[in-house]
């Protein structure tokens, strides 16, 4: 089990060996396989789970899934962690009911809990999800050091259609430079999933019990300043319903208007609504692409637009975070952008707002305030507005470093799909010109692309959007007040 087995179920290009374990002496039994799940939280269409079960079956050993709950990972609050944990509770039930694979939940530092579990059950293979984020990569390096010499560590990219290290071996400049590389590889990687194999050997009964109610309650209490949202149903079955549901599924009911409506903030139904599920791996991007491709003859423009966002743009973001270790900082920008931003860093600004003022939407720009309030109360800001929102932060802060820091802080705190390569790249594109080109020079922005209120007004009904957000916020506050009253009445003596 030290290296990839012959005739694998999962394409070899999708798997990287992070650590080679020592070969076991002849006659000595192999240990079980542990799959450390974190980015791809699903049972179905999961290449990492398939690889773990396939390797376990070839060695005739059992397999288990382990998950480590980080304490407020990268600023996640109740909104993000509640959604994640409710989905994981469903996942455990399905995993154990359909595949008889046990699910272990640990709390603490993954670089301690995962190697300890590997040692405790004497596993000889640890399978992990791929993530380009530096925090996860640092943890994996530490895990590789801490697991025993007999254990191998395999990383599987089940998140991207084309594995990030296969799509390109370098930092790509833009969508234009990576698009051809990805499209060339789609015939090899955008394939139908094989059936999920069942383990041939079951894990011995365990007394590991997960008190989901207590864990979720604790997370909601600690992160209560950013409460959960109601519009986003957790779990992978809900994800498939958003994609293919008979009532309001994206591909079944809303696809036709995608290419025309997705940039209009007044038409949120024009978007797919899949980003929270893709972020937490509740649904496979490959499954979304396969289902969309079946409908291309009916809506070619809409499907092509969707696949561009789903595959090329998402995988470009992973490429950037994977090959640029300084993503999320000014040092991660191209040289021309750093220079133009620093040349204009001291330009006079009409307004300077603090992080607290921006967080509370206390600016003179009603459109910007509406976008910030949409994110704070709804957990999702429209993609077009996110560009305008970030560029205004550059205009209203003391310099590009502060602007970038505030944009990422707010994005990660309030967006349900924050702490994601797409979010970091979105902020870097808006403020630092990443994956963009130089434009006509102007104060503050230099050669970074400029956006303003007048430009938004030409594209959509700005007053209509502001009214839409006011209504949204009012409804959210009303629900919150009703919930507080309900909880207060329950606390009264009966």
From TrEMBL:
The record's section on Gene3D superfamilies has: 1.25.40.80, DNA Cyclobutane Dipyrimidine Photolyase, subunit A, domain 3, HUPs
Tell me the keywords, alphabetical order: DNA damage, DNA repair, DNA-binding, FAD, Flavoprotein, Lyase
For this protein, what is the EC number? 4.1.99.3
Its Gene Ontology molecular function terms? deoxyribodipyrimidine photo-lyase activity; DNA binding
In what residue span(s) does the Photolyase/cryptochrome alpha/beta domain sit? 31-164
The reply to whether Iron figures as a keyword in the UniProt entry is no
Q: Name one Pfam family in it.
A: DNA_photolyase
**Reactions listed under catalytic activity:** cyclobutadipyrimidine (in DNA) = 2 pyrimidine residues (in DNA)
Q: Which InterPro entries match?
A: Crypto/Photolyase_FAD-like_sf (IPR036134), Crypto/Photolyase_N_sf (IPR036155), DNA_photolyase_2 (IPR008148), DNA_photolyase_2_CS (IPR032673), DNA_photolyase_N (IPR006050), Photolyase_Class-2 (IPR052219), Rossmann-like_a/b/a_fold (IPR014729)
GO terms, biological process: photoreactive repair; UV protection
- Cofactor needs: FAD
Question: Sorted alphabetically, which PANTHER family does this protein's record hold?
Answer: DEOXYRIBODIPYRIMIDINE PHOTO-LYASE, DEOXYRIBODIPYRIMIDINE PHOTOLYASE
Protein family per UniProt: Belongs to the DNA photolyase class-2 family.
Q: What this chain does, per the record?
A: Involved in repair of UV radiation-induced DNA damage. Catalyzes the light-dependent monomerization (300-600 nm) of cyclobutylpyrimidine dimers (CPDs), which are formed between adjacent bases on the same DNA strand upon exposure to ultraviolet radiation. Required for plant survival in the presence of UV-B light. Not involved in the repair of (6-4) photoproducts.
Q: Report what the protein is called.
A: Deoxyribodipyrimidine photo-lyase
Species, as recorded: Kalanchoe fedtschenkoi
Taxonomically, what lineage is the organism? Eukaryota, Viridiplantae, Streptophyta, Embryophyta, Tracheophyta
